[in-house]
Amino acid sequence: MEDVLRIAVGTVTMRPYVFAFFAAYLVAAVPHLGWRKTLLFTAAGYLISFASEFSSINTGIPYGWYYYIDVTRDRELWVAGVPFFDSLSYVFLAYCSYATALFVVSPIKAWRWDLVTLESRSIRGSFAVLFLGALFQVFLDIIIDPVALQGYRWFLGQIYGYREPGIHFGVPLSNYVGWWVVSVIMVFVLQRIDLWCEGKGGKPAGVANPPLRSLYGPILYLSVLVFNLAVTLWLGEHLMALTGILIYILAGSIAIVTIVRRTNRYRKEELAEHLRDYPWSAVSGRCAKE
Description:
mainly alpha, two-stranded antiparallel sheet
């Protein structure tokens, strides 16, 4: 029992940044989707990511051949050769990528102290959100994986490596192909959970309208991005950091221009569809005042 408690505590204390991001994911996802959908996706997302990692360390599919170094097995939770925190990370990365894609694709209603993405069931389940959400998640890994591979130089620790060094700062391109495949699956599953698990007769438990709620997912996305770039710069890996920043410039600029152009330029039909699908939206109270 003492060993179990030590490992449970160590799982959190050794990776506080991971669990801080996971807590932020709950703060963002529960008001957005509700408790039921959030918990279902947390479980499904973890199982998908664990299966992908377990498969890759044993067969090389989908990320290519890599291995974990279980030097922390006696201090944190590992599951069948995979560190628990690693598979858990995929969950909040997938959600914040999905939420960021929604923010880019959806029309936006903004007023002085708030803004709301005019999401609808059709937008949430759209191919555009699936495609962009998966790409956003892969782009995060393009920043995360090279610096994670340098874990022996910072507080992550050296927990994994590739059988053969890849061309992108030691990361093989097969890793990013695998991430894209897994990201598509995870965002697709999140979309299906969202559309199939609608509450009956009213607002799902946990759904709420705190100020600027639509920004929570994108802020989590940017926080993960900035954290990993900051670690990269702290290590003195300036070329690695510059490469990551340049990768994001075009995509980020297109996203910002799209968001600005869509803000308060929605059609009446888009607003009506949003209110029909989500009558508890903060927009409903705003529209009643106007």
